[in-house]
Amino acid sequence: MSQKQRSHMKHSRLIPTLLPEGQKPRYEKVHGGQPKDRGRTLAEPYLCPICRSNRTSFEIIFKLSREIRKDPETGEELFQADSMSVMLRNDRPELEVKCLTCGYTGYEGLFIKAARQGAS
Hints:
The protein is an alpha+beta fold. The chain contains 3 helices and 9 strands, in the order ααβββββββββα. The strands form 4 sheets. Strands 1-8-9 form a 3-stranded antiparallel sheet. A two-stranded antiparallel sheet has the order 2-5.
């Protein structure tokens, strides 16, 4: 990955280009501003399941994968694919969320579940 590509990784418009051919971005809004994908979008509130105080400051982490081949005896890398792909779970990008208050990183669903339970 070139320096220019790395510097643009933080740019939100780059993320949809990392998705497999034909897959739509997860956080696209439908007509009327209603989030799609059964409500599991950034419009969903988060609460850190560990510190239970942070509802506002988070980082979204997209997992990327790249195929490599290693020599079984020496561990030397023999092949490395040129491209990286977004890891998918149930045909959706596999996301993790990091709490910027306590530093805990976990599956996005844990933060959504904690927010729902904390609101009840």
